[in-house]
Specification:
Layout: H1 15-30, H2 54-61, H3 79-82, H4 87-100, H5 103-110, H6 114-125, H7 138-146, E1 158-160, E2 163-165, H8 179-191
Antiparallel strand pairs: 1-2
């Protein structure tokens, strides 16, 4: 036989090395499932429903109504997340927040300054920029009407054929706007219409070409 067939005594593993390899291989092949619990717990992960029994568990496991909600409408987003949303979604969310949440809370949650909130956020969305709770001056009211805000007027009669109808409100919408601002305001107008009601609408849009 050649010299390679047998290992010399110097190359043969020692008794300590043999014991180490044996114990290491056993641990390797046993894996984590063979390890003892260090916390005194063992067995599968259990959820709260697993602790119910009898009638209570049966009622819990039955089918129930699915509730759908929008996570964005339930909390104010930071400005960095808010500006990534589509412009239409920004208008809807900001309008809802201003109806239900105090202005100071909105500014704090968005993590921006008050000046930026009014001069950039609300102005770019075409939302009323004067702080809520402040009494509007006469000059501001006239300016708002000229720039195309929605001005409801009640107690006006509209004649359709031989029938006289007293509308609940009338809206005048006029002015010159950039395309983006016009689209935003028309989207806001659509939000106040009731799908189950009837309306008389006179609508005109004229494109103004620059020189």
């Amino acid at each position: 036989m050649s010299e390679d067939t047998y290992l010399s005594e110097e190359l043969q593993p020692s008794e300590a090395e043999i014991v180490f390899r044996t114990t290491t291989s056993k641990k390797f092949f046993s894996g984590v499932r063979g390890r003892a619990s260090r916390t005194g717990r063992k067995g599968p992960i259990r959820t709260p429903v697993d602790f119910l029994t009898g009638k209570a568990k049966k009622e819990y496991m039955q089918n129930s109504e699915v509730i759908v909600y929008n996570m964005y409408e339930n909390r104010v987003l930071p400005y960095e997340e808010f500006k990534e949303l589509p412009i239409e979604k920004q208008v809807v969310l900001m309008t809802k927040w201003r109806e239900e949440i105090a202005t100071n809370d909105i500014i704090r949650e968005m993590k921006i300054s008050r000046k930026k909130f009014y001069s950039e956020v609300l102005k770019s969305l075409g939302i009323e920029t004067k702080p809520r709770g402040r009494r509007a001056k006469k000059t501001e009211t006239n300016e708002t009407t000229q720039t195309g805000q929605l001005v409801p007027q009640a107690n006006q009669q509209v004649t359709l054929g031989e029938t006289k109808i007293e509308p609940a409100f009338t809206i005048f919408f006029s002015g010159e706007f950039e395309g983006q601002v016009a689209a935003i305001r028309l989207a806001r107008l659509a939000r106040i219409l009731d799908t189950d009601s009837k309306y008389e609408i006179r609508f005109e849009i004229k494109e103004i070409n620059g020189s």
